[in-house]
Specification:
The radius of gyration is 28 Å and the shape is rod-shaped. A hairpin with a 5-residue loop joins strand 4 (about 90-95) and strand 5. By secondary structure, it is α+β, with helices and mostly antiparallel strands. Helix 2 runs parallel beside helix 5 (about 175-210). The strands form 2 sheets. The protein has a 3-stranded antiparallel beta sheet with strand order 1-2-3, with no helix packed on it. The chain has a two-stranded antiparallel sheet with strand order 4-5. The protein has helices spanning about 40-45, 65-85, 110-140, 155-170, 175-210; strands at about 15, 20-25, 30-40, 90-95, 100.
């Protein structure tokens, strides 16, 4: 690389500073940035840690939200809806040994398997949407976005990490998905608590009726 200004096709990287050959300056792919570092000989640099591209701020006109991140934050509500469709009719049976127990077929209804299948689909969609969101942020100029693979651990981990990094490069923006994730979690816990309480009451009623007969 010469001392001249890199062309538009030159990839981002550290190049000799045109204003001072003793330094290297970060080229973001379009223009020089304010980030500088001491220039080192090749035999010295091979023992030094690799420079990471600094996260430079993006313009206020650059969007930080897209349909993919909203889908990731709202998909957990779909699981809640499928949970509400699972309405087991608890039945009590008496085994050959005279033991009164719950009929498993009254629990494992089609609604139960639909709930399990929907959870796997939602998990896969979250990973896919995180990958698309990661690509969209990179094309928008966000250097080293939070990696989409964290979604394999949990979609909330990706939402939080993504929001923190976006907030660093877009001041006062990027944190809304975190608040929506918190709201979705609270709503899910409340609905799940009410549903579980109702289901337990129904199950106890079924056992009570069986014991009285």
């Amino acid at each position: 690389m010469t001392q001249s200004t890199p062309g538009s096709a030159t990839p981002p990287g550290w190049y000799p500073d045109p204003s001072d050959p003793r330094l290297v300056r970060w080229w973001d792919g379009r223009a020089w940035t304010a980030h500088q570092a001491p220039h080192q000989a090749p035999q010295q640099m091979q023992y030094q840690p690799v420079f990471k591209a600094p996260r430079t701020p993006i313009s206020e006109q650059t969007p930080v939200y897209n349909p993919f991140i909203w889908a990731i934050t709202l998909l957990p509500l779909v699981s809640v809806l499928f949970m509400l469709t699972w309405q087991p009719e608890f039945r009590v049976i008496t085994t050959r040994q005279g033991v009164t127990t719950l009929d498993p077929f009254s629990i494992y209804t089609p609604g139960y398997f639909l709930l399990m299948a929907s959870s796997l689909v939602i998990y896969g969609l979250s990973v896919f949407f995180a990958y698309l969101d990661y690509q969209r942020l990179a094309r928008s100029g966000v250097v080293r976005p939070f990696h989409w693979a964290w979604t394999f651990l949990n979609s909330a981990v990706y939402v939080i990490g993504r929001s923190v990094i976006v907030n660093k490069v877009a001041a006062k923006r990027g944190l809304l998905p975190v608040w929506i994730t918190i709201a979705v979690f609270v709503i899910s816990m409340v609905v799940a608590g009410i549903w579980t309480s109702t289901m337990m009451q129904t199950m106890m009623s079924s056992f009570g009726s069986s014991m009285n007969t």
